[in-house]
Amino acid sequence: MADLMKGKKGLILGVANKRSIAWAIARSVSSQGAELAFTYQGERLAENVKELADTLPNSQVMPCDVTDEAQVDAVMRELDSKWGGVDFLVHCVAFANAEDLEGGYLKTKKEGFATALNVSAYSLTLVSQKVAPLMEKNGGGSILTLTYLGGQRVMVNYNVMGVAKAALEASVKYLANDLGPKNIRVNAISAGPVNTLAARGITGFADIIKMVREKSPLRRNIEPEEVGDAGLFLVSQLSRGITGEILFVDCGYNIIAF
Ligand code: NAD
Ligand code: IMJ
Known about the structure:
By secondary structure, the protein is α/β, with parallel strands linked by helices. The protein is 41% helix and 15% strand.
């Protein structure tokens, strides 16, 4: 085992199953010696996440629905007493009502807009404000979130999630500026399409996979491990001069206009 993250303690939000991008990042940082805490949304996912976490050394698991501030507070209290500080946080959380992910953005209702923006964008600000004191105790830290090209360009069916990702990406920059003086960095990875629970069943997903394979500079789709390793870079000291950045891990697809 290499030791890039030896002694570092991190909180990972958003593992649902073994295909989750959060899990790919967890594997990368764990392979470098990091100690991890995982949160899961709702008891339905508890067993799944516990089983996965048990395959990594020194990991623990706790519930956290990001729409419930009390649950976020409880996680931070537990980490404060167990670890006394946190070095990094990985936020891989997104949700919009299924009806808002098809048939155009124009029809979006206030409730659906609020849900998508609350879960997928505001939650980063909430967990950042709650984890910052624990990172300060360790002399700084690194916060990482996951975004998608649909936050910058119009992607069919992405709709209100695109608006939420635009808010998330702007949040990364404002949070980076607020937390920089505390030596806390905030960055995002903009990942190419990955076949996870959040992508399965999306109308047109297969077409997007095909388009990336045909048009991206690398002429292929990304592997989850590639997001995992970029995540490792952004939470490690290798990226200590980088904050407020949106790093594309997409085989170069975003640079192409044809
Ligand atoms: P996933 O379904 O494995 O992960 C999404 C996670 O969000 C799940 O673990 C789910 O439990 C969690 N979540 C939803 N609502 C929550 C809530 N209220 N409280 C706590 N957790 C909640 O899918 P994924 O593709 O790994 O998604 C992770 C992140 O990656 C998301 O932000 C997604 O937008 C982003 N992303 C995904 C792709 C892709 O193609 N899969 C591409 C770019 C970015
Ligand atoms: C999601 C919707 C539409 C097009 C999409 C996606 N494309 C990709 C995704 C092309 C790659 C996956 N993605 C980047 C997401 O951020 C997904 C978020 C998401 C997915 C679901 C599906 C099930 C549900 N609600 C969701 N909320 C957010 O009920």
